Amino acid sequence: MIRLLHPPGRDLSQLAWWPDCVHLLEPVAASHAEEPLAEIEGSPYLRLNGDRLELVDRRFSGGFCLKAEDVARHAKSTSFLCRAAGVIGAEFRVLDMFAGFGVDGLALARHADVTLVEQNPIAFVLLREFADRLGIRADIRLGDGPEELSKAITSAYEVVYLDPMFPMRNKKALPNRGMQHLRALDVSEPFSEAGVTNLIELARGCALDRVVLKRRLRDPQIGKPNFSLKGRTVRFDVYR
Ligand SMILES: C[S@@+](CC[C@H](N)C(=O)[O-])C[C@H]1O[C@@H](n2cnc3c(N)ncnc32)[C@H](O)[C@@H]1O
User: Fold this and answer.
1) What residue owns the CA closest to ligand 1's atom 12?
2) What is the DSSP letter of 233?
3) Which of 62, 74, 145, 179 sits between 20 and 30 A of 122, alpha carbons compared?
4) Hey, which of 98, 134, 169 would you mutate to test ligand 1's pocket, going by the most ligand atoms within 8 Å of its Cβ?
5) Given a cut of 90, is residue 40 above it in pLDDT?
6) 67 vs 27, 155, 170, 207, CA distance in Å?
7) Could you tell me which residues are beta bridge partners of residue 94?
8) What's the pLDDT at 166?
9) Does the pLDDT value for residue 36 go beyond 60?
10) Residue 151 confidence (pLDDT)
11) Separation of CA 115 and ligand 1 centre (Å)
12) pTM, to two decimals
């Protein structure tokens, strides 16, 4: 169970995301109403700060909260993400198999019907709360992305979006704060190139229009993407 520190007297059942997450959470009331930011010992936990959820992980200083502007930036119709996924002006259904905190998946959900799958329960709860806070409708599931894909009927999605965890390459160049948190929470092995090759094949069997793979800018290509869009630090390889 994930501990959720909340101000005393707070009625959690009023939170829109509560019913989807209640089975994962162990609420802990802070001792004073004035001290909703108090800390509790041990493994990473969540705390309710006003209406926002924060992640508290002792390996990092301070609480971490997802920011609307990150999604807004990626949701612009001119963004590399939206252009790579082809969601502008199309009625696409997208499966985001490795949703993380949903910065990418929720940005796409501004334009398309998106199903987001995340395996880590803490990331799932934060993502679920974040989607409500932004007023974004999306189908958010706690589960295994590849399993979800193999269950999907062939015609269920136009786009399958892949952003799996890759092994750290340059240990000196730290990824952004959200990605550092995701890395710290994720206990699974990062995907190997061979593993991602299999994922692309699996995804191609399901996606009606395209598979989009997010990679670091200088990572080698896997197979032969039809085209790539390059940002400052990442690249989107598109397989059709
Ligand atoms: C690189 S992050 C994705 C970041 C995401 N695109 C975003 O915008 O926040 C990869 C995520 O995949 C999740 N993950 C790893 N294996 C998974 C699996 N088999 N099924 C679903 N999610 C998985 C990890 O917990 C991590 O949150």
Assistant:
1) 98
2) S
3) 74
4) 98
5) no
6) 24, 33, 26, 30
7) 114, 159
8) 80
9) no
10) 86
11) 13
12) 0.93
